[in-house]
Specification:
The protein contains 13 helices and 10 strands. The chain is an alpha+beta fold. Among the domains are: 10-187, Sandwich (Jelly Rolls); 318-367, no CATH class.
């Protein structure tokens, strides 16, 4: 479901026209540099049956913007949705199916091998040293963090515009997004307990993937935990425990992330009619939607609309989420953000210090890599 290169030299040359036509997938190159490439993809397949085997000759990080599908790889089936970062290792076969309908689309990042090895070595140097040319990701997917997902969507919107952009900023942001996904991948690798039987582990994983599939199909509905457990023929307590262990998230938070990431797709076009958008996504009210959105992304829906329409990309994330100051190009639209944040600061921070702290927090939203 991500782009597939045709030869081992593809990262060292400009994208050939043939690389734009992967069978079943429409691909557009949005950005090319000596370190990474960024594309957008749209899947043409709609069959609920599994496709034939395919594989990637490079390490590819894929983000889903719209839709969901099933990916079968390395002996397990995964539901890939907007909460998921696909991590394709070269030469590892996978198959896909579309039981939730077609029309999936998203974006992908591909890094030069040397750049990727440098990133992975920070978290698992032994993996790189033992097989510097053929190392594999420890898992075929990872959970995409909220602020990372928001930033890659803003990056995608900026690259989709006809006018030029700050190429250095784009490259730095792309590299930072890739490192964030790789860090999450290695953080979430949990060794299976020795006493757990392989069949039991497989059964638990299949139960969680089935629950994710139900969430994809019904995320616009006012779901209850009992609804999912009954359909999966397990207890609510058992399902909640398994889901948290496999994904690292409680079910309600995973569900909210699906709704909010879907909101990013319609946010630029909905204007000020956020109430209709909120109800359409399954939220009980406009205030519930806005509060959840702010908690997830650190910005209100209106602020994200302002950033998307301004064409200015936030500063890329750093590892500790720190920034010396708010970006100067945000000065006009950020004034209301700074004012709102100031009112929430402790009373001890007064006057210029209060406003400076608020400005720092605005900057930190775009810099934070804390997942």
């Amino acid at each position: 479901m991500a782009l597939c290169f045709r030869s081992m030299n593809d990262l060292d040359t400009e994208p050939r026209e043939s690389a734009r036509f992967v069978p079943g997938i429409d691909i557009d190159w949005l950005f090319v540099s000596s370190s990474l490439r960024i594309s957008r993809w749209r899947c043409q397949a709609q069959s609920p049956e599994l496709s034939g085997d395919r594989c990637q000759p490079w390490h590819v990080l894929g983000f889903t913007h719209v839709g969901a599908f099933v990916m079968q790889t390395e002996g397990r089936s995964l539901v890939v949705d907007a909460n998921t970062v696909m991590l394709h290792s070269p030469g590892i076969p996978y198959r896909t199916a579309h039981p939730f309908g077609g029309g999936d689309r998203g974006s992908s990042l591909v890094l030069r091998p040397g750049v990727l090895r440098e990133m992975v070595a920070r978290y698992d140097p032994a993996r790189v040293e033992s097989a510097p040319e053929t190392f594999r990701f420890p898992a075929p997917h990872a959970i995409c963090p909220p602020k990372g997902y928001l930033l890659q969507r803003l990056l995608f919107e900026l690259l989709s515009r006809p006018n030029g952009a700050d190429l250095m900023r784009i490259e730095e942001t792309g590299l930072s997004l890739a490192e964030s996904a790789i860090r999450e991948c290695f953080r979430r690798v949990v060794p299976v307990k020795r006493q757990a039987r392989a069949a039991t582990v497989r059964q638990h994983r299949e139960c969680v993937e089935a629950a994710k599939g139900l969430l994809v199909e019904r995320f616009r509905e006012p779901l209850r935990l009992d609804d999912l457990a009954l359909q999966l023929n397990v207890s609510s307590c058992h399902l909640a425990r398994l889901f948290k262990r496999e994904t690292g998230l409680p079910i309600h938070r995973y569900l909210n992330r699906l709704r909010l990431r879907c909101a990013l797709e319609g946010l630029p076009e909905c204007g000020r009619d956020l109430t209709s958008l909120a109800f359409d996504l399954g939220f009980s009210s406009h205030s519930h939607f806005s509060a959840s959105f702010g908690q997830e992304f650190g910005l209100t829906p209106s602020q994200v609309q302002q950033i998307a329409h301004s064409g200015h990309l936030p500063e890329s994330f750093d590892r500790r989420g720190r920034a010396p100051q708010a970006p100067a190009r945000w000065a006009g639209s950020a004034r209301s953000m700074i004012s709102a944040l100031s009112s929430a600061l402790p009373a001890a921070a007064t006057g210029p210090r209060r406003e400076a702290t608020a400005a720092y927090l605005v900057s930190r939203v775009s810099q934070s890599a804390a997942i």
